[in-house]
Amino acid sequence: xxxxxxxxxxxxxxxxxxxxxxxxxxxxxxxxxxxxxxxxxxxxxxxxxxxxxxxxxxxxxxxxxxxxxxxxxxxxxxxxxxxxxxxxxxxxxxxxxxxxxxxxxxxxxxxxxxxxxxxxxxxxxxxx
Length: 128
What we know:
alpha/beta, Rossmann fold, 48% helix
């Protein structure tokens, strides 16, 4: 079973990098959003398994999206990706429910490892 992914990133070429990184992997990209408001709408309507979420977004920042998203899609798991590399922000994001936090720049393998952790979590939940 492919896990459904939503990519939330305001920079087009970075979204393309994520799409490229996930092709031929066990993930289906079901949507993309370039701002926080659109992200919340897509989280509500698409009910993704995984959300790859940038923090610095137009209209509503990623931390605010994270705060609201769990009520809209409780099963969704979040990987926060940002150039913000301070422990307070990382801990705050994790306290809001982020499963992982990757600091830009990162490698394709780091992203895939993060996604694999979430995949394992889904497998454990489904098997009992």
